[in-house]
Structure formats: structure tokens, C-alpha cells
Records
---
Amino acid sequence: MGVVPPRVASSSVDFDLSPELAELQQTVRRLAQDKVKPRAREIDTTGEYPVDIFEAFRAADLLGLCLPTELGGSGAGILGLTIAIEEVAKYSNAAALMLLLTRLPVGPVLIAGNDDQKQRYLPGIATGELRAGFGLSEAVAGSDVAGMRTRAVPDGGSEGGWVLTGTKCWMSGVVEADWYTVFAKTGDPSSRAHDSITAFIVERSYPGVSVGRTDKKMGVRGVHTGELVLEGVHVPAENVIGEVGGFRLAMLGLNAMRPIVAARGIGLAEGALMYATEYVQERQAFGQTIADFQGIQWEIAKVAVDIEAARLLTYRSAWLADQGKFGKEYVPFLSMAKYFATELAVRASGLAVQLLGAAGYMEDHPTELWYRDAKQLTIVEGTSQVQLGLIARGVLGRDLWWD
Ligand SMILES: Cc1cc2nc3c(=O)[nH]c(=O)nc-3n(C[C@H](O)[C@H](O)[C@H](O)COP(=O)(O)OP(=O)(O)OC[C@H]3O[C@@H](n4cnc5c(N)ncnc54)[C@H](O)[C@@H]3O)c2cc1C
């Protein structure tokens, strides 16, 4: 007699999008085709911030996807934003970054901020009246955030609060932002302990805040990346996010971002594969189309498999994040999505360039632009190596185990 399997009354796994999310996907797909696709090359060439795209997102109510309805958002969650970004990234990763920035600096406030902070800084993100930036990296401290030099010292004046001094770098959206989530050392500057770091909300209008140099980038042009300079900036005590030394809680915001960054990779890979597939089905060589060669078909098939694998990893990680499951035990799943989808973007766009041959290398086609854009995805918000480290830590620590 074999072991009798337990009876399974119902299945709780559902791979369908809800009707609301399916409708969101269709709406953003149309918007991306109509408004983003025709502008993608121009945004890259001019490097100018695409105000028209921001306005299109605002008109379509896409700026508050990740915010709860009580803060003026649509409550579509991380999964909703993930799906929207996937559609936009099929054509422009700069435009996709504009949507991502509705969550990256907002995350720490949503997770660790108090009601007053949420009311003051978040509804304006949903309406498009406010934009924000995220200041973690410094020239000497990227992956190694504990090495940051920006300092916050208690303000000895009658008002209390803090005085921030330092320079944040490579900040996306730094020029357009109205407020910033900024991380600074409040403890011993030489300490590498996470509780020596605190997150603050810093308004652009505070005296001593300025934008330093902006970077000349390989890709994702149009949304400026650059320095935020803080010269003795007084920040009121009520702008501390969470508590002093509360870096760990604020950092949970970054964990919840993984599927959103992954979506930029998936959309880019989908756009590149579709474009290259259409091309090789037309292009003639050796008396047939390039798509008739089995070797080419296998390359297309391999990337198609990876796209679907990346979508499964990413949608699941978005679903986890929406349930508040972005703590230590879920980190490997979130990191896997980011790692796999962004590496895929480089692979898929590289294949697209290759399949178009010389044409793919020229600006007549978007393939070279996608290839340049893809590379930043494996660097931002935790490099591929950092994600692999987090996944490995999960396995070694048994958070990721199959027993
Ligand atoms: C276009 C763009 C936009 C950005 N936007 C923002 C933003 O809005 N806000 C912000 O705060 N930052 C932003 N960044 C910065 C980004 O987060 C950092 O570049 C990233 O964290 C890596 O830091 P780093 O560049 O200093 O590289 P480093 O940390 O110096 O790493 C260099 C190399 O060493 C590897 N490495 C480092 N540590 C390890 C390790 N422990 N094990 C194995 N390999 C390791 C890395 O993977 C990488 O390959 C942006 C960067 C870019 C390119």
C-alpha cells in the first residue's frame, strides 16, 4: 500500500490578473504605444525631461498607482505599478523610470513614516504636483552604504532638528524633484552599524540644498541623474522618517522595489524580442528569411522562455511585497526577480542588436538604445552581484530551502 495523498479541496494559486489589473495593463499598453513609443528616440537624443510624458501619466492617473486610496492613490499596489512599468519599458526606459520614481523615494515614508509626513508629501505625488528623489548613494559609497559620509548632527539652536552636510550622487530625477528621501549618518561617522544611519525628508526649497553636477549617461537619458549637495541644511525633527537610527526599517522600502525595477527589465526584453522577431521575419538572406534559420529560432525561443520565467518571478515578488512580505525571509525571492529580469534585459537587447546586424547597431532602429538602457538596470538599486549575495545568504541561512 502506497501513502495516500491528502485530499485537496481547492487550489489557492491563481495566475490570472484581476479584471482591474488586466484593464490597467490594456490602458497603459495603449498609452505606451500612442504616447511613449513615438517619443522614445527623441528623449534619448535631446536628453530633455519629457514633460509631455509626465503629463500623459498624470492625465491617465498613473502617478499614484502605488499609493493607497486614502492618500489619493489608486491602490493598485506594487503589482499594479509593476504591470504598468512593464508596458512602458517596451519602448522607453526613461519613461518607465518616471513611473518608478513615484515609489522609490516614497517607499520609506509609506513603510516607516508617520501620518503627518504621509499627508504632507504623498498625495502630491499622486496628483503630479510633487516629485521626489532618493538619496542613498555617494561617490565613495554605492553598494557599501555603511561607508556613507553625509552627516546629520543635532541642531543646537532653539528650533532643534538636524543639520545635514554631504553630497549624494547619481540620484535619478534630482533636477525635477521637490523633495528627497536622504540617508545620513546620525551616529558615529566611522561606525558601520546600520543604526548609525537615519532617513530624512529634505525639501528642495530648504536653504543649503542645491543640485550639483548632472551626469552624462550611457542611457536612460531624459530623466537627469546627478548630485544633491547639502550644505549645512536645517531639517526639522518632524522630517525624520521612522526613528533616529531607523535605517533598517527605511531600507525595507528598497526590498519592496525589486519587482518594480525588474519590470523595467522585462518590458525592455519584450520590446526588443518583438522588434527583432518582426525584423528577421522580413529580412532575406541565402534565399529565405533570417527567421527560417533554426539557429535563429532557438535564440528567439531561449529569450522567450526567460521572459516568461522573469514575469513569473516578478509578479510573484510583487504579490509578496503587496502583502507586506518584504522582510528578511522574503529577500531572496525579491532579489531573484531583480537579478534575473535585469540580466535578461541586457541579454535580450544584445540579441536584438545581433539579429538586426549592422542595422541594429545604428540609430535608425531602437535596438542600440535598448542595449544602452538595459545596462543601467543591472547596476541600480543593488547590482547583480549584490542581489546574488542576498540570494546566497538566503540559501545559506535556510530562508530559501526546498525541504
Ligand atoms: C543611471 C543610474 C541611476 C541611479 N539612481 C540612483 C538614485 O536615484 N539614488 C541613489 O541613491 N543611487 C542611484 N544610483 C546609484 C546606484 O544605486 C549605485 O551605482 C549602485 O548601488 C552601485 O554602487 P557603485 O556604483 O558605487 O558601485 P560599487 O559599489 O563601487 O561596485 C562596483 C562593482 O563591484 C561590485 N561589488 C560591490 N560590492 C560587492 C560585493 N560585496 N561582492 C561582489 N561584488 C561587489 C558591484 O556589483 C559592481 O560590479 C544610480 C546609478 C545609475 C547608474
---
Amino acid sequence: MRNNRKKFLQQLGAGLFVAGLPGIASAGNFLESTIDVNDFENGGAADDEKYWKHIAHKYYTVSKDYINLENGYYGIQPKPVLQTFQKNIALANSEGARFARKVYPELSSSIKKELAAFLQVSAEEIIITRNATEALNIAIQGYPFKQGDEVLMCQLDYFSMIETFRMLEKKGRIKVNAFDMPLLPASEDEIVEQYRQEITDKTKVILLTHVSNINGLIVPVAKIAAMAKQRGIDTITDSAHALGQLPFSLPALGSDFVGMNLHKWIGNPIGAGVLYIKKERIKEVNVLFGDVNTAEDNISKLAHFGTTPFAVVMTIPISLAFHKQMGVERISQRLHYLKSIWINELEKQDAVEIVTPKNISCAIASFRIKDKKVAEVADYLFKQHSILTVNRALGKDGCIRVTPSVYTGADDVKKFVTAVKSYINV
Ligand SMILES: Cc1ncc(COP(=O)(O)O)c(C=O)c1O
């Protein structure tokens, strides 16, 4: 246990310890008083309410004015992350340009290495972006399409990536083929088969949204990427909602282009994303932000950004360390459990249509109520019961997305169930 504690604190300090800047160097001591590694050593079964209440109380400050079941937007930072972030903001502010010029370059490069290790890839295969949209735009707009190439996507993909591909189509660079994924596929193989059937002999890229922001469907990226690769087709994968919510190995996905963010399920402050490109593919990718001096096979050619949010990037090590302590398996199982509580209850209601397969999803799932407008249902839940969900576009009826987080109690989810039932019965 002692060794574990030491290791944990070392991890927290990594990337933050900078000679000559005592404010950063003391971050480890500061954290020692706020994180108890014992909390993460044992326990944490998905249905252990006592455990999760303890974690929620100790590590999360959330508004008590409403029940937040819209954690799909962005994640609440755990207290030690928030406190470190606040210190980092103060430090970058008080230090000014000396910090940016003399310290930050080396610091950010060590943070990048730490992030790459977390993702199990080489630091030469990632860049830190401001969000997943930026990461994926760099990949999509930089992809070496040739005249006549086609891109395959479905209605459950994220609208920003769809728009980026549609923009390329409008410019005459590609043709987009979009299909409707069944909302309740029975198995992963059925999902793979859907993509396989839609492939044409001109398909060059498949857009994969690892976890749909609309209904939470988890797409079996590795299986689809393998099937596509056999046919000479690339996958560009949007793992914005997968990283931190689901256990997966980035290299094992077999997708050569993957965009993610750290401000959803990793719990970093808002403003950090990651683009991964497999080493041997980097040279093919065209730069979006002008850069003529960096080598073609150096991923830094894609990261010619202006001034970046220092404090956000500096907080990445503590976010990763906290997330690792909690453990993605434990997080994932808890989220799946919370989702199952409400689906198990509401699927018994004739008026409710669940539009997410319970066992091919994790935290996020969606529903609608027959003959009711989704916006009105979401509005009712918020105004009458102080429960925040969000309505999403999906076909002609739309859906209401429900996303608990690790600090959500089963009692909150049950209140949501009661509220929906009361709406059906008015
Ligand atoms: C599936 C998916 N992809 C991409 C994004 C965009 O993420 P970001 O806000 O980090 O650009 C989101 C945001 O909700 C998302 O749900």
C-alpha cells in the first residue's frame, strides 16, 4: 500500500515538477492532503451506493439545485483536479511570458509524453488540441483524398464531423454516403455488417463514432477497422465519448486516425483534446494550420497552433492520475449500472421507446415518449423536477439523452424514473 501511495503521488507530480517554479513543484504536497489512495484500493462495486456516495461527497462539488443527467456535455472536474487547475491558472498568470518562454515548452513536451503513455502510444503519434472537434478536423481536412473518393457515415455520428465531410463534399473533393444505423442492433456483428453492406468500391474512409453522442451506441471500432483495412479503407474514429468512459486500447483499435478529448470522461478542465495518427501515416496528412518547416513525417507539423491554454494542459497529469486511480473498469461498470437502473424501469412502460441497446452502451442512453415532443419532455423534467437531460435530433421524432456520471447516485436516477412516469400519466 505504501508503495502504491508513493507511486500515485509520483504520477501526480509528473509533468508538474519544474525547477525554479515552487508554485508548481509544491503541487504534489498539496494533493497529498486531498487524495486518499485508500479510497481506490478496494470496493467500488457498481451497485455499492455507500462507496459511490463517499466518492461523490469527497471528490466532487456539484450543484445541489438540480440533478445533472447531462454529463455528456462535459465532465465535472474532481476536486483535486480543479484545485490544481486553479493553481496552474494563478501560476501562469503571475509568471507571465517568462513562464511561457522558459518553462512551458519543456513542460508541455513532458506532459505530452505522459499522455501518450496513458494512451499506450508514442508521443510522436499524438498532438494535444483544444478539443475533439479540432483534432478530427485536422485529420479529416488533412486526409489525402483523391477525386472520386467516397466517405461512409451514419446518422448516429457527431454533427460537427458530418459537417466537415459535407463541407469537403460541397467543395467537390469527396462524395458522402450516409446510412441509417438500426437503433437497436442485436449484436456487434450486426453493426459491423451494416457498415460492410454500405461499402462501395469507391469508399475510402469510414467515419466511426466510437460512442454515439445521440444514443450512446458503442460501435465495435476494432472489428470495423479490421474489416475496412482488408478492403483498403481507412477509418477516422471519433472517440470523444469513449476515452475515459470505456476500457479500450488505442493501438488495438486498429484505426489510424483517432480524435478524442479529455474534458468529458477524463475530467480535465475544458480545452484539451488529442489527435492520434499512426506513425507511418503522418507523412500523408496535409496540414490545416500553415507549416512549411516541420518534417512531413513529424506530427508536430499538424500542431501549428497559436497561444495555447497553458493551465488546461498543465492540469492533464493530475486528471490522468486521478482517472487511473479510480480505474476505467470501475467507472465503466458504475455508469453502465446507473444507465441500466432507468432503462430496466422505463422499458416496462408502453409509452416509452428506448432507442439505445442496453448492452451495447455504457453511461449514455436515450428514449422518447410516444406522441410527445422530446423538447417538451426535457423541458418538463427540468422545470417540474429540476432534472437536466437534453433532447437530441434523431430521425423525425428525436430523443432525450440521459447521461449520469460517477458522482450520480442511484437515488437520483430513480427520481428521474419517477419524473418520467409522472409525465406519462398527466
Ligand atoms: C461524439 C462526439 N464527438 C465529438 C464531440 C466534440 O467534442 P469537443 O467539444 O471536444 O470538440 C462531441 C461533443 O459532445 C461528441 O459527443
